[in-house]
Design brief:
By secondary structure, the chain is an alpha+beta fold. The protein contains eleven helices and six strands.
């Protein structure tokens, strides 16, 4: 079993079931070509030639909630989901690539460490990116996915010989023009329902108003995509994704078998 397959197996057991390798050069070239407001990944170390994008489908939720039930310290954490995913990724990467220099980036990073993970997913054909709704649409799971981490590894090029020198052709658009139009309408509706000064809080679940229903407008954007509806997040997972309401976690824990 390859080391990448080992990593995939370890992460899948923790609910992190999406894993895609890419060449750092693909991303760096895109950053330069489109003048994106992010750093080139090679600027963190010229020895980093290969990266791994990690994400999840709905499968993350059950693993996460079970971990919450068993770990009081995790339950008390301010950001338990980020803490869960980061600890599981760190442990798995260290177990498999302990002999290689590593650099890890998270979806919650910002500033100099912000990585355009959706663009990486687009580059390595992990998902189609709709640049209007900003949704990553997976060929099986549809819009019901999230990107969590990017791992850079040094000295592993020989293990990724199957990666082409240039990025592969992007995935074809898997949604209809009607769905794209509905997504655009849903985005406009969500924006109109959001106070611009609170937009970042709502998108990142930092709003203090846990009774606000504005998150449902953002959920509607995902729901416009018909592909993968059978993999839709549960009601609890969807609400927590957008609100970070801790009452949702208590309800989810209570609902475990």
């Amino acid at each position: 079993m390859s080391r990448l397959a080992q990593l995939e197996r370890l992460l899948k057991a923790q609910g992190l079931d999406l894993l895609h390798a890419f060449r750092v050069r693909w991303y760096d070239d895109l950053v330069e070509k489109e003048n994106l407001p992010v750093r080139r990944l090679s600027s963190f170390g010229e020895g980093y030639k290969v990266g791994i994008l990690i994400g999840n489908s709905k499968s993350l939720w059950t693993s996460f909630v079970r971990a919450l039930k068993e770990d009081a310290e995790l339950r008390a954490n301010k950001d338990p989901l980020d803490t869960y995913t980061q600890s599981r990724v760190k442990d798995a990467v260290e177990e498999v690539y302990h002999d290689r220099k590593q650099e890890l980036f998270w979806s919650c990073d910002y500033g100099d460490r912000l990585v355009a993970m959706q663009r990486i997913a687009e580059l390595c054909k992990a998902a189609y990116l709709d640049h209007t709704s900003h949704l990553s649409v997976h060929p099986s799971y549809g819009s019901w996915i999230a990107w969590r981490a990017v791992v850079l590894l040094e000295g592993v090029e020989s293990e990724f010989d199957d990666l082409p020198a240039a990025p592969p052709p992007p995935l074809p658009c898997p949604v209809s023009m009607e769905e794209l139009a509905a997504a655009k309408e849903a985005i406009d509706s969500a924006l109109s329902m959001s106070d611009q000064t609170k937009l970042r809080e709502e998108l990142h679940g930092e709003s203090k108003d846990e009774t606000s229903a504005s998150w449902r407008h953002w959920l509607r954007v995902r729901e416009t995509v018909k592909l993968g509806q059978e993999f839709r997040y549960s009601d609890d997972q969807a609400e927590y994704h957008y609100t970070k309401n801790r009452l949702v976690l208590e309800r989810a824990i209570g609902g475990l078998d």
